[in-house]
Amino acid sequence: MSTPTDPAVADSPKTASAGAFPDGSGVSGEPLLSVRGLKVHFPIRKGVLLQRVIGHVRAVDGVDLDVGRGMTYGLVGESGCGKSTLGKAVLRLVEPTAGTVRFNGADVGGQSPESMRRLRRHMQMIFQDPLASLNPRQSVESVLSEPLRTHGFAGNRSRRVRELLDLVGLPAGAAARYPHEFSGGQRQRVGIARAIALNPELIIADEPVSALDVSIQAQIVNLLEDLQDQLGLTYVVVAHDLAVVRHVSDVIGVMYLGALVEEAPSDELYAQPLHPYTIALMSAIPIPDPEVEERRRRILLTGDLPSPVDVPPGCRFHTRCPFRQPTRCAEESPDLREMRPGRKVACHWAEEIAAGTIRAAASAHDPTATEVGTPSS
Amino acid sequence: MSLSQAETVAVVPEETGGSLGREAWRRLRRNPVAIAGAILVVLFVALALLAPWLAPYPPDKPVGQVTPTSIPGPSAEHWFGLDDLGRDEFTRVLWGARWSLIIGVVSLLLGMAGGFLLGLLAGAFGGWVDSVVMRLVDMVLSVPGLLFAIGIAAMLGSGLDAVMIAIAVVNVPIFARLLRGQMLAQRRSDYVLAATSVGVRRRRIVFGHILPNSLTPVIVQGTLTLATAIVDAAGLAFLGLSSNDPSIPEWGRMLADTQRYLSSAPLLAVFPGLAIVIAALGFTLLGESLREALDPKYRR
Ligand SMILES: Nc1ncnc2c1ncn2[C@@H]1O[C@H](COP(=O)(O)OP(=O)(O)OP(=O)(O)O)[C@@H](O)[C@H]1O
Ligand code: SF4
Ligand SMILES: [Mg+2]
Hints:
The complex is a heterodimer.
Chain A: H1 13-16, E1 33-46, E2 52-67, E3 72-76, H2 83-90, E4 98-103, E5 106-107, H3 113-120, E6 123-126, H4 140-150, H5 157-167, H6 184-196, E7 202-206, H7 214-231, E8 234-239, H8 242-246, E9 251-256, E10 259-265, H9 266-271, H10 276-283, H11 290-295, E11 337-340, E12 343-345, H12 350-355
Parallel strand pairs in A: 3-8, 3-9, 6-7, 7-8
Antiparallel strand pairs in A: 1-2, 1-4, 4-5, 9-10, 10-12, 11-12
Helix pairs in contact in A: 4-5, 6-7
Chain B: H1 3-6, H2 20-29, H3 32-54, H4 89-125, H5 127-141, H6 145-156, H7 160-187, H8 190-197, H9 202-210, H10 216-238, H11 251-257, H12 267-294
Bound molecules: adenosine-5'-triphosphate, iron/sulfur cluster (SF4) and magnesium ion (MG).
Magnesium ion binds at residues 83-84, 128, 206-207 of chain A.
């Protein structure tokens, strides 16, 4: 009974990928999701009558990433670094300023409204704030049957709603209830049920547990993993904390001020972080062994997180980097380059830092030092 | 059997339970200001509706002897006394309530409808439609409301309909801006993004999701606007911009008519004046406490 009946759609996503898209790609081997040079800049306007643009919030500032079918890509970064915006831009829920997103070979940016609507069926989002993601005036039944209705689901809708509730571990009685009648975890289950209603291939889970009680978080993470196994989902899981994505991700991307600074297979990233920002993030995670914890060097970052309106020139991390060098760092922007197979890093000095020939400046006692990786909220 | 099915959770209504509306209703009932406002509003509306049956005399015929120097004050037969033409003042104040309510409600509905259409256009489409509508609205709002209404009423050539249209026009931009702001805020909300993401069409998003969640402040504003509409109508009538028909007693014109007798019969100004204040106060108190009750900031 673990296979749910196929929803909505006569052409299931799997068959659609074989060549239903205009350019006929979607050949195996190509990643399910491929993002190139993605930018989202929000204009800042001023003035009453004639609104002048006086600057831009560079929320996402040139991101490349690939996510293979069935994989889980973990996206980590401090609050405000553009994770949610990146997720929404990939699904075209906000309009990107530049760059391309290819899903299953199809160019997401080049779709007409109606073909975009149909394409959306295959890529869904789970939101950061479960309450805000549900219309307060909509019963769960209505939330879950809406996707089915708009895509012309042929079967029995209320049976499919029960089935979805069952999949996410909610009782059938939840259908008649309204969002405010649920706890946070239950609301997120409703959000997850909505996301899987159309049997998508890709789900972007934007901090799916950060708004929830710690005691509930593991349940939701487990649920997401179970659903991945049952439904063959591909995930992009967003978190502001490495600890959350560690166990679920195959590949982790570390984001700083709108750009990826490091990308690596999950276990390798933990074994040896290469980018100074990742090194600092990692040193903020407490280690269960008290002796190791005692001896370990914590790398604290100095200075405030720069505003995405004024991204520092050169390396975007240079204003806070404990490994900063007098040359290159402040002038030359490092590309995200493949240092070793599978290991990408955007730092001019990654080799030297890995080899230990460049050490972190002693900033541990700097009173202005701030710890990263802890949620600011 | 999967893990997620094994850990099925019971649905527990939270402490704050009940629907949003019911919760607001509970807060409203406990608020003395709301109750005071509601009592005044109910009183005003009841008197206005029942004026023809409650009024002891005809509103437009003299029922007693008056001269400019002796205008009888309150008595057992004439509770509020007689006016300068010998008509029963109590009767006229009652009928005045009726006309205030009619003018207030009609101009409110007209203004709301206009503002609703403009706000809906701007809020649903955004972009240049929004810019054009909002520049228009900003321009109109930069002129003081009553002054603008006087201009329009004078232009339309005074009369009841001129007053109602003038007040409606003044309120159009207020409702337009309010609805548009609400809709734009909702448009960016996660549940709207979620609906877009599952493929809900634009029209259904606007009418099924955004609009229903944008209406609460419009209703609150409507209650408050009724208060200003009543005051504005009285103001226009005071300036002689309303109907000249003596069978239509209006509080504003009653005030104007009694100016000459302020020294001999000051109460003739007090009664309609008080009536205006009470009616406007009722709607204001009710509107403000509605706003408070519905505002999520005050939710506990
Ligand atoms: N619609 C918008 N208009 C202008 N600026 C925006 C908009 N949406 C987001 N931003 C800005 O873009 C930056 C990135 O926001 P985003 O929500 O993507 O960050 P995030 O990494 O998801 O943060 P968090 O962990 O707090 O959710 C922030 O500085 C935010 O203020
Ligand atoms: S390039 Fe320089 S400033 Fe940037 S991360 Fe590397 S060492 Fe630090
Ligand atoms: Mg976010």
